[in-house]
Amino acid sequence: MKRREVIKSLSVLPFAGSMANQIPFNHKKTYSSKLDLFAELGISPVINANVTMTFLSGSLMQPEVLEAIQSTSQDFANMFEVQDKVGAKIAEMLRVEAAMVTSGAACALTLGTAACITGSDAEKIKQLPNLPGEMPEVIIQKSHRYPFDQAVACAGVKLIEVEGPDDMQKAINERTVMGLFLNCANEHSISHEQFVEIGKANKIPVFIDAAADVPPVENLFKFQKMGFDLITFSGGKMIRGPQSAGLLFGRKDLIEAAKLNHSPHESPIGRAMKVNKEEMFGMYVALKSYLERDHEKEWNEWLGRAERIKSILEKLPGVQGSIRVSPGPANAFPSLRVNWERDKISKTVTDVLTELENGNPKIVAGGREPNLNIGVVLLRPDQVDLVANRVKDILQMG
């Protein structure tokens, strides 16, 4: 959603807020069971009033994804066929040549890199990550170095840092197998378009990591239009598929090579990164559901949640809230920023975060002085008022 659309949508907040107010506190979860394994194992469920984070189990799967997992769990299937046919349908939805389901976006980084090294060469596939001779090289902007580039390096490559288009061109040689672009990097010394242009001029595949970069839904189509050869998104974030699933899509020859480097083949580098059939079906249904969703309606619901929490907290003297839309590209959705006058409430943001996390139920929010950030997109409807009132109670005691 563009900024002007966000501003326009603010006009619906009173209505959206009133709808949030009508949500019953005991709203049922999207999935129910007689089992309570959290209690049995002594694990505390967490209310995620922050953003999608792997250590907090990503996001919550949609009911239709759970149904897909359950409905496919009672029969065996040939995993080559499942990967091929699920991938073909995903490619059709994303309007690309080919696609596959991976065990998260990190796995996609490894498999995509492996594909660029080996192609369909069975001997190279068997040898990774220890090819004889000098190590293959992957071009990356210096400002794009990040923890997950280790998933690229583990395919047996050396990362070559560059700054600017001229530097990238000079760095390309006979050992260069790929260029890696981090979409959510704070700085780009080489633009998306320049990166693609240089890669294509030198016949070097270019791979973009956009793991957490939906919404907006348009990003799922944006980068193949730019000319990137490989693209990855996380499946377990805002697409709301299985947390351990991801998407790798793009050029057909590279996707087919990535499959050869993956399970159920028995000896390639990706054997340890297997994806079960239930996750593949679940990822297919999650993507289908995401693409069919009314994204404007969902956005307005998020704004309504933020407005609802804001209205509850601003009943306290000295407390102010403002709805903030992250500029992205990662986590580009609304949240509520809260601050307060310290002569009226002495608690720090750290104090509030600690009390939220140590309470029952446990709530994880975000922010740092002087702003408390309350995420709303991952809350269940019954948790909106709960979070608002818990923060209110903590501030009242301050």
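The above is record 1. Record 2 follows with the same two-line structure.
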Amino acid sequence: MQPRPNPSCLLLLLWLAGTLAAQTSAEVARRYTSEHQAQLTQAFSQLLSIPNVAADPGNLERNANVLAGMLKQRGVDSRLLSMAGAPPVVYGQVVVPGAKRTIVFYAHYDGQPVTPSEWEGAPFTPVIREVDGEQRIYARSAADDKAAIFAQLTALDALREAKVSLRANVRFVWEGEEEAGSPHLEQILDASRESIRGDLWLICDGPVDQSGMQTVVFGARGDAHLEVTVYGPHRGLHSGHYGNWAPNPAMMLAQLLAGMKDDQGRVLVPHFYDGITPLSPAEKEALARAPVNDQMLMNSFWLGHTDGGGAHLLELINQPSLNINGLASAQVGARATNVIPPTATADLDLRLVVGIDWREQQQRVIDYIRSRGYFVVDNQPTREILTQHPKVALVKRDEAGYNAVRTAMDLPIAREVIRAVESARADVVLLPTMGGSVPLGAMERAAQTHTVTVPIANYDDNQHAANENLRLQNLWNGVETMAALLELR
């Protein structure tokens, strides 16, 4: 005779099954990270210890191979998408039987250049420090952008351990030259169009809102660069003997650059703001609801004033900008000499919004330089050119620019992303555009898709600078967010 099941045991089993079924993907991820934090932190540190700057192609290849191996360890079909002269794109795919959609997760594994003397420690020797009672990990690409890759992998681990099935096909596309302007990305994607297609590309790059709230962003600014060099004497001249007579290129460049903006920071280059596509009512409403963090940021950055004539940061991000990335002429400090230098050079960064073409924006600045009396050349000027023209400017166009892209917030799939992120994070900020630039246009053209950006890094991460860091809680929160996105149908 078979023993009768104990009713109380059956009830307990049913309760446990119901509890597990009721857990959200974010809750599953939260439990997983809390149980494995030490191991996860160590694994993340190992990934960050591999140098990843453009000047070191051998280590970029090493990064790609390590990441492809991490996907394969998880049973993900993985390979490298390669072309001559470019770091490989790491590709992975999870096919879900019967799935009606394919979701692509994008991130990049390359990082900005480093100047080790500016760091408190070695850039590729990760170290954990406590800041305001919270742990942060310091290393190049801790926030930008290996954190996103590691969060995606960890979210996949968490769901699989809890036996939570994916509902859509999932693809991973991790780039290796985003910080160099992604000059080969579109070609690489074009060569693998069928592999990289998706109903949506989720761009996991950048910082969350300065309030600390999780952010969903529907576009990114475009980017273009110019390098401008102006000329004085053919060689350095004694400033006492020749000052007030020989033109000083450092002063000439300062005057040229100063004329490009007014004292409120508005660009004075003719037609610089022409062609801007206005924000939609939904985008304007999202901006109106977003936190205003200006005063907090001013205090954090030690600023006594801001550009923009009183406009908020989020308003100004939706305008094109002109920034001086760097200036070079002669020497300063202990190496300074009493000299009129031969040249002065500036690197200009042009951030773009939807409706403005990057090449046209470069040309507008070049036309302005010409209007200031400069003879503009695109190669090193000869003696004849320098002596025949009062003012000469060598302008080099960076050919790795790209335009801004914005996805409509009210698309059905965009609304699904918002709901998924809201299931993981209590408060979510929606923004039409982020301040940074990502080559969204290349992705959308090659994959015939829409893009939505879901960043996870802290805003004060020293992105692109010395002592880059990631607040570890942002990593754990990011795993929860990625887990919720992995469950999109």
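The two ends are 47 Å apart (CA to CA).
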